[in-house]
Amino acid sequence: TCQSCGEGYTTNYAGSTSQDDCVLDADALPACQGGYYLEKSSGSCEICPANTYSTAGSLYCTDCPENGSSDAGATECALQEDCEAGSYLTEDGCQECGKNTYSLEAAMECTPCPEGKNAPAGSTSPDDCQYGVRQLTAMYEIKRGFAINMNGNMV
User: Rounded to an integer, what distance in angstroms lies between the CA atom of residue 6 and that of residue 3?
Assistant: First the structure.
């Protein structure tokens, strides 16, 4: 004769021969409230960790997107606004790019200017990276009273 697995349990296939084949029946488990997920091994609702969320009845927690965050037990993620060009997103919000760097809109980090080029803080384009006076002076060669530019032309 067949034996029952017990309330809340079932088998994955017909013809099971051992109580070891009994598993929790997902259809018989409780529906968890938002911010919690169903831990199948114990059949209990567990709180979602920080930077994840769940809706009511979820079997698992979903990670927040890259520009979002949440506290433990959240039902949704708080999305950070995209930062303007010249700034980047940090845990504390948008921060201005430092000297000799730049960023485009919605940046997660600032991009350094090429070596030898400078840019003011908050620069918004690689075009903002320019050679400074010292670098320009070093590129010119003085010969017999004439300056020769980088293209080899006398000025």
Answer: 9
